[in-house]
């Protein structure tokens, strides 16, 4: 799952991003509304964690642009306000959820996962195929009952392949969904990650390479 964090408090934004990466999310971070709109114009996100009081372009305007754009991103709005009127106002803009600062990080993660289940297509609580069982909430993977330890990006790639439900996923799509914008677009890291995944998942091999198309789990 790919998340955009829009937070003008740099330390808070970086802390949120680092915590979400530990939860296997691919995360980009920006500190103002204009930068958020730029990222949204070129990248596809599942969830946008949006501070409401942003410089340059206000969070309300960013939220309206996301809703009007109909790109499928879900919006979790952050604010220091705890009043009912403010929450209702934020939701009326089209935000899917609302979280007041300060918040517990575990609650933030739970809300992001809940919104992800309503994104493109919905992320199921448990993904299963070809004897593989992946539970995003607990970051657990098993194959035929055998527990498998995966690195963050390995987990993210496997999740994307399972979400495709038997359809091929291109290397470009995997790069976009499992890594943040700082990754070199010409890297071979997808191929390296697939090779590592195959080794850890064991025999018989379940990840097929479709030349010129991508990868698939039948």
From TrEMBL:
Positions bearing 4-aspartylphosphate: 51
Domain OmpR/PhoB-type per the UniProt entry, residue ranges: 124-218
Alphabetized Gene3D superfamilies for the sequence: 3.40.50.2300, 6.10.250.690, Winged helix-like DNA-binding domain superfamily/Winged helix DNA-binding domain
Record's keyword terms, sorted: DNA-binding, Phosphoprotein
PROSITE patterns (alphabetical): OMPR_PHOB, RESPONSE_REGULATORY
Signal peptide location: none
SUPFAM superfamilies per UniProt: C-terminal effector domain of the bipartite response regulators, CheY-like
Pfam families registered for this protein in UniProt: Response_reg, Trans_reg_C
InterPro entries assigned: CheY-like_superfamily, OmpR/PhoB-type_DNA-bd, Sig_transdc_resp-reg_C-effctor, Sig_transdc_resp-reg_receiver, WalR-like, WH-like_DNA-bd_sf
Annotated organism of origin: Catenulispora subtropica
Residue ranges: DNA binding: 124-218
Domain Response regulatory: 2-116
Identification of the protein by name: Response regulator transcription factor
């Amino acid at each position: 799952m790919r998340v955009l964090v829009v937070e003008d408090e740099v330390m808070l934004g970086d802390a949120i991003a680092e915590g979400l990466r530990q939860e296997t999310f691919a995360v980009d971070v920006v500190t103002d509304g204009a930068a958020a709109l730029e990222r949204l114009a070129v990248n596809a996100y599942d969830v946008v964690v949006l501070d409401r009081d942003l410089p340059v372009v206000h969070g309300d305007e960013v939220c309206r642009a996301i809703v009007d754009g109909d790109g499928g991103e879900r919006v979790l709005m952050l604010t220091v306000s705890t009043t009912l009127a403010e929450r209702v106002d934020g939701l009326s803009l089209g935000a899917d959820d609302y979280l007041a600062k300060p918040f517990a990080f575990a609650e933030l993660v739970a809300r992001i996962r809940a919104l992800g289940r309503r994104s493109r297509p919905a992320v199921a609580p448990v993904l299963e195929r070809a004897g593989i069982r992946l539970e995003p909430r607990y970051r657990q993977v098993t194959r035929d009952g055998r527990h498998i330890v995966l690195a963050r990006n390995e987990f993210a790639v496997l999740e994307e392949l399972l979400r495709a439900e038997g359809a091929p996923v291109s290397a470009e799509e995997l790069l976009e969904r499992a890594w943040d914008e700082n990754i070199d677009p010409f890297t071979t890291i997808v191929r390296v990650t697939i090779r590592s995944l195959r080794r850890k998942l064991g025999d018989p091999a379940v990840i097929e390479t479709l030349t010129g198309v991508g990868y698939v789990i039948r």
